[in-house]
Write a structure and sequence with these properties.
5-stranded mixed sheet; Aspartate Aminotransferase, domain 1; L-serine-pyruvate transaminase activity; 406 residues; Soluble hydrogenase 42 kDa subunit; 14 helices; Aspartate Aminotransferase, domain 2; 16% strand; alpha/beta; 2 domains; oxidoreductase; binds pyridoxal-5'-phosphate; 7-stranded mixed sheet
Length: 406
């Protein structure tokens, strides 16, 4: 017997769960794209996207996924033959580095493995060694979605300033925007990219490139930028179609409007703290289950609030995922980047996506499903992880003090 019928819970680290209001906002006939209401819609989205990224800078919206805005950000600032520095943890830094190679950049990769955050001291050493000032940008992935490692982006700005190096700081916040704390201006980020389908709760298809005036000056000095990726007209359009380099992605825009309304109603600080508490509940369960269950990132300071990568020993990661899908209607993420065709270790991992539209009962439900799976598959664990998670939730709600109890 399967108990999976009912609403599927997507605990993949993207695409994430879409709120009903987002889905309903998109369920409409095509509009007249010359309707001035669309212009107002775009202007409102721009203002609210900047609020979410905590910047007074500019934003360009692309009809693209995260890979698209990786290329967009690079295309505006890096000419063929120029150098970028990529301190990379896990999979996604290498993905962005590969994009840079594809546009003809020289890429210096600092490999950080699968469970350590970017080391600012290694970045400092690379910048100090760059006496010819060849490095034009330092690229940092804030949350690596494969390993669930979160790096300190502000620390990279501090190192750039201390060395007095003029390189731009570019941050990939695809996994973190709308989940983990992201403060573009306070952190001194020059270019920040994100996409619609993770913390922003909208289907895949929109990409965002935020950039400050320093980055705009670098763009202005470029020998050429491909027309479609050029962020100039998108961020400062004279005509409506320039926002999107062509026909507006109307339905995505309506969905994004609904998602931003949810974020504004909760406040971005409220969104961050909800994700922090929900992440702590997940970590409490994993800690309680105990060996062989262990989180990939040992130090909580370096753990993302959007995704948790869990080791469980091959092949139990795959067994558990399949069991949860078939029996409880919960889809967990695969052990991305933890092995390849010749190395089966990836099947010893699974990932819990906890991005975007997620509340306490969803987290308790998915953790209960995992605990049922551990039990059903006879994977050793200490039962009661779900209670450990429940205690985090009850404490966060302001558990009654003994004196207040009836
Ligand atoms: C998902 C993700 C990407 C890639 O996004 P796509 O939309 O799949 O192209 C890039 N970086 C990070 C950190 C991600 O989580």
């Amino acid at each position: 017997m399967s108990l999976a019928n009912g609403r599927l819970h997507m605990a993949l680290p993207g695409p994430s769960i879409m709120p009903d209001s987002v889905l309903q906002a998109m369920h409409r006939p095509a509009p007249d794209i010359y309707d001035p209401a669309l212009h107002d819609l775009a202007q409102g989205l721009v203002a609210d996207l900047k609020y979410v990224a905590q910047t007074d800078g500019n934003v360009a919206i692309y009809i693209a996924n995260g890979h698209g805005v990786w290329e967009a950000a690079l295309s505006n600032c890096i000419a063929p033959g120029e150098t970028v520095l990529m301190p990379a943890t896990g999979v996604f830094g290498h993905g962005w580095a590969d994009m840079a190679t594809g546009i003809g950049a020289e890429v210096q990769v600092l490999e950080h493995g699968r469970n350590t955050p970017i080391d600012p001291e290694r970045v400092r050493a690379a910048l100090l060694a760059d006496t010819g000032r060849k490095i034009k940008a330092v690229l940092g992935v804030h949350v690596d979605t494969s390993t669930s490692v979160r790096s300190d982006i502000a620390a990279l700005r501090a190192v750039l300033d201390e060395v007095g190096h003029p390189a731009l700081l570019m941050a990939d916040c695809v996994a973190s925007l709308g989940c983990d704390t992201v403060q573009m201006d306070d952190w001194g980020v020059d270019v920040l990219i994100s996409a619609s389908q993770k913390g922003m709760m909208v289907p895949p298809g929109l990409g965002f490139v935020f950039f400050n005036d320093r980055a705009a000056q670098v763009r202005a000095a470029m020998p050429r930028v491909s027309r479609y990726w050029d962020w100039g007209p998108r961020a400062n359009p004279n005509l409506f179609y320039e926002y999107f380099g062509g026909t507006a992605p109307t339905h995505h825009l309506w969905g994004l409007r609904a998602a931003l309304d949810l974020i504004k109603a909760e406040t971005i600080e409220g969104v961050w703290s909800r994700h922090q508490t929900l992440a702590q509940a997940i970590w409490a369960a994993c800690d309680h289950w105990g060996a062989p269950v262990a989180m990939n990132v040992a130090d909580i300071v370096h753990r993302s609030h959007a995704v948790t990568s869990v080791m469980i020993g091959a092949p139990n990661g795959d067994r558990l995922r399949e069991w949860c899908t078939q029996n409880t209607g919960v889809s967990l993420g695969i052990g991305l980047g933890m092995g390849d065709d010749t190395d089966p270790s990836a099947s010893g991992y699974f990932r819990i996506g906890h991005m975007g539209h997620l509340n306490a009962h969803m987290v308790l439900g998915l953790l209960g499903s995992i605990e049922a799976g551990l039990d059903a598959l006879c994977i050793p664990h200490q039962s009661g992880g779900i209670s450990a998670a429940a205690r985090v939730i009850s404490a966060a709600s302001g558990k009654a003090k003994p004196a207040d109890r009836p």
